[in-house]
Design a protein that fits this description.
By secondary structure, this protein is of the alpha+beta class. It has two helices and four strands, in the order βαββαβ. It has a four-stranded antiparallel sheet with strand order 2-3-1-4, covered by helices on one side. It is globular, with a radius of gyration of 13 Å. The two termini are 19 Å apart.
Length: 84
């Protein structure tokens, strides 16, 4: 069973990250870092309405990203979704 087919099933966990970043290089660095830590990027988008707002969704519990975001972004929200 592929991991995409597990979405919504009991025990499936994903993390949504919303952030403001004025340096797009930082956002690319964050994406690479998440990938290097073994997280699969499910979705990435940049707002077409408000400049500098990004959305990243990854498979797994990636709350550890909060520590990096606290130091490098003016605003962020990390949301853990666990299907029970």
């Amino acid at each position: 069973m592929g991991s995409a087919s597990r979405v919504g099933l009991k025990g499936y966990v994903k993390t949504n990250i919303f952030l403001t970043a004025y340096d797009e290089g930082f956002v690319q660095e964050l994406l690479r870092g998440l990938g290097e830590r073994g997280y699969r990027i499910l979705e990435f988008s940049k707002s077409g309405v408000v400049d500098h707002i990004y959305f990243i969704s990854v498979e797994g519990d990636a709350r550890e990203a909060e520590s990096l975001l606290k130091e490098r972004t003016p605003w962020f929200k990390v949301e853990l979704l666990e299907f029970k």
